[in-house]
Amino acid sequence: MLESSSPRLYRQALAGLLVCLGFVFLLHHTLAGGNLLAPNHYDSYALQAQNWLEGRLYIADGEKYAWLELAVLNGKYYQSFPPVPAVLTLPWLLVLGWHPANLTIALYAMAAAAGVFQCLRRAGAPVVGCAFHALLFSLGSNLCWLATNGGVWFQAQVLCAMFCVWAGWAFFARRYTLCAVLLALAVGCRPLTILYLFGLGIWLLLGPCRERRSLRPLLGPVLAAGLIGAVMAGYNFARFGSILEFGHTYLPEFMREENGQFHLEYLLSNLKNLLRLPVLGEGLALEFPLFNGFMPLLANPGLLLWLVCLVRSWRGGRKGERLFDLACVGAAVLMLVLLCLHRTLGGWQFGARYTADLLPLTVVWFAVRRPRWQPGCGAWTLCGMAMLFNLFGAAYMLTA
Question: Apex CA 81: angle with CA 79 and CA 83, to 5°?
């Protein structure tokens, strides 16, 4: 048997993982009617990109797309999500004239799985650990279902996860400017991931900057991320007159809502939603809510594994390691609270898709605190059940 440090074994494991993922998406879209190459009805990114190519920041004849979440301001319609995923549709539109959103989101998910694998490999994890975490991240989490549907909401979330895990790889490769660029692009998909960008900045200040007694290690990352942020801020200002406004404030559903898009009033009810559990109904059939989420540890059990390993590591950890643990827990709690301030908590879904934004944090934690960790029978059982549950969810949502 090859040693776990063999580069060939890592390459074979990663190739096998990607082949399996590709096969999963092929099978799923066969069940869905062979729509892997078809445009997606809810792909407003491609619609926005097409309008860019025609010289408009707004969407012409937006009233014709009543099913899309388009912002309305001064009689014009605008795409209401951060712009980075729309930028990535441009090559498809220029070459093909259309965007196969279901295919591209599957490719994003495969790239995210590869990013998890490579991030942990760079941190020194054995091949079995790399493969385990990549499987749990891609097929054993809400990303499994998200990656089967090229709708605007899901493209943003899967692409964000991809950028975040590859930022983790760049971090362990000591390519901090690239790390900052990838995290800034992630913010251009899911704005709350700016917490990860702040985390990188704090680490650079307390680590390399402190060691060298200079702010120079911070210069490249700040300039690179700042440039991307400035472009997005300018884009927002040109459309809505605010550098922070991506458009959701001007969605008709939030304009009619007394408390708007984000409010403390939503916090308690959303937290209660995340405590809901599936139940066995008549004929022992599983019953679970399809709106605003249910218990995230069921659809994203990587969070459960992280919490268990964190508690075990805490007992034998040194002061610096415990501070890192506390920082990760604090970041996760803060992000969860901010997500729960949103009115809908993700709307129609299987599981609790917003909490999948926490998964890149768990990958980085394992890479820092438990890089040599290898799954035992319990962890493999958890991973197997997680993959079955999320594959079931992806199939179930075809007819939900």
Answer: 90
CA 264-279-274 angle, 5° bins: 15
394 and 350 in contact (C-beta within 8 Å)?
A: yes
Element (H, E) at 76: strand 76-79
Q: Which of 187, 212, 217, 144 is nearest to 390 (CA)?
A: 144
- What are the backbone dihedrals phi and psi of residue 314, each rounded to the nearest 5 degrees, phi first? -60, -40
What CA–CA distance (Å, rounded) separates 81 from 248? 7
Beta bridge partners of 348: 291
* Listed residue (137, 68, 150) closest to 306, CA to CA: 137
What lies within 8 Å, CB to CB, of 298 at 6+ separation is 277, 278, 351, 389
Nearest to 115 by CA among 192, 170, 188, 154: 170
Q: What is the pTM of this model?
A: 0.96
Place of tokens 């308690």: 268
Give the span between the Cα atoms of 69 and 51, in whole angstroms: 16
| Stretch (H or E) spanning 71 | strand 70-73
Q: Dihedral through CA 284, CA 274, CA 394, CA 378, nearest 10?
A: -80
Q: What confidence category does residue 248 fall into, taking pLDDT thresholds of 50, 70 and 90?
A: confident
CB 102 within 8 A of CB 148: yes
- The end-to-end CA distance of the chain, in Å, is 46
Q: In terms of DSSP H, where are the helices of the chain?
A: 7-31, 44-53, 84-95, 101-122, 127-138, 143-146, 152-172, 176-187, 194-206, 208-212, 216-240, 252-255, 267-273, 296-299, 302-316, 319-340, 359-369, 377-396
Using DSSP's 3-state secondary structure scheme, residue 109 falls into: helix
pLDDT digits (tens, 9 = 90+) for 249-298: 899 888 888 888 888 999 999 999 999 999 998 889 999 999 999 999 99
CA separation for the pair 356, 395 (Å, rounded): 19
